């Protein structure tokens, strides 16, 4: 732990400037405030958070932990990568082909229009689907022209202002409504609540899952095979989402570093994990619901084969194959995240 003491001290001294209790100062907590009304509100449960915490693993072993590494906290868009893992499980079971059009297996859930019929699973995973419609009460337009911190493209219009849609697969946009549509599609594919599938196929085999929760919006219920199920979002943009510990996040990062294998069992196909970290043609800074560092623009001091799960509020899971590293840091001020990465990289040297 001493090796990384400077990085840990730096993280702990630069906590994200959000209140720890979302009910205390709601105007300073979350990202939904940036949305046009009436969509600038929470639609699902949230809860108080802990302080800055994290875990570092080297060559498969935990070498450092700080804060409350076993506390299950909301993790925002890190949950997107968990959807990609579930899609990988479905692929391993022969339930989806990434290049297959979603409508071919799932008619009647929002992929039937002439525009949406062309959308493949790969388009959804790389955020180039340009899906058009309303998912669980949220129109895709809410996220038009959205720009997030690691997106190198300049904004082209005001957030929520309608823009002309492109052919699926030709335009990248970070769009949480479309991610929620992917989650809804996976729910219909598995025909079981996704939190149950994720615990059963990923977290519990890794030895984790304590206090894990993946909640949906209050009104996000559907009926499948006569059973009422809640569709869960790929983040906490409008509340709900994944609550998970830093140690469990590190376990998931280790699984990806190890090519989807844990204790000799292939939990996610190796080729799927490899594809998750390959740059897309339209957005070479992005893989399958992961962020890439191929040109060093994301983090200059991280190795170029590093890849990341990222969530609002200062959540990062860093996977560095070159150094056998998995580093998780939570609730750090995002503006200070490069400083944390630099200090970890220096310690590795």
Automatic annotation (TrEMBL):
Record keywords, A-Z: Hydrolase
A molecular function GO annotation: hydrolase activity
InterPro entries: Beta-lactam-related, Beta-lactam/transpept-like, Diverse_Enzym_Activities
Superkingdom field: Bacteria
Residue ranges of the region described as Disordered: 15-34, 142-167
Pfam entry (one): Beta-lactamase
Residue ranges of every copy of the Beta-lactamase-related domain listed in the record: 70-329
Protein name: Serine hydrolase
């Amino acid at each position: 732990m001493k090796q990384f003491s400077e990085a840990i001290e730096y993280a702990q001294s630069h906590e994200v400037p959000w209140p720890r209790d979302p009910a205390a100062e709601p105007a300073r907590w979350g990202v939904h405030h940036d949305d046009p009304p009436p969509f600038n509100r929470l639609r699902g449960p949230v809860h108080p958070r802990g302080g800055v915490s994290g875990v570092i693993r080297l060559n498969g072993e935990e070498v450092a932990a700080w804060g409350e590494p076993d506390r299950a906290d909301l993790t925002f868009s890190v949950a997107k990568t968990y959807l990609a893992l579930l899609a990988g499980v479905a692929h391993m079971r022969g339930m989806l082909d990434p290049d297959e059009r979603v409508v071919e297996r799932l008619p009647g859930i929002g992929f039937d229009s002439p525009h949406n019929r062309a959308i493949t699973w790969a388009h959804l995973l790389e955020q180039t689907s340009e899906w058009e419609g309303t998912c669980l009460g949220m129109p895709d337009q809410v996220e038009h022209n959205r720009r997030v911190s690691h997106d190198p493209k300049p904004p082209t219009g005001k957030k929520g202002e309608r823009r002309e849609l492109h052919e699926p697969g030709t335009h990248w946009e970070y769009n949480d409504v479309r991610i929620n549509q992917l989650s809804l599609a996976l729910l219909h594919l598995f025909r079981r609540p996704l939190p149950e599938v994720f615990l059963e196929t990923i977290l519990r085999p890794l030895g984790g899952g304590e206090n894990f929760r993946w909640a949906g919006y209050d009104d996000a219920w559907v009926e499948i095979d006569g059973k009422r199920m809640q569709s869960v979002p790929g983040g906490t943009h409008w509340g709900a989402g994944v609550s998970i510990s830093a140690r469990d996040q590190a376990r998931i990062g280790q699984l990806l570093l190890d090519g989807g294998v844990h204790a000799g069992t292939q939990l996610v196909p190796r080729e799927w994990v490899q594809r998750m970290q390959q740059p897309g043609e339209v957005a070479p800074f992005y893989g399958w619901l992961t962020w890439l560092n191929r040109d060093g623009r994301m983090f200059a001091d991280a190795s170029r084969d590093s890849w990341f799960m990222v969530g609002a509020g200062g959540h990062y899971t860093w996977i560095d194959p070159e150094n056998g590293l998995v580093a998780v840091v939570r609730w750090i001020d995002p503006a200070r995240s490069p400083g944390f990465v630099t200090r970890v990289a220096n310690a590795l040297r």
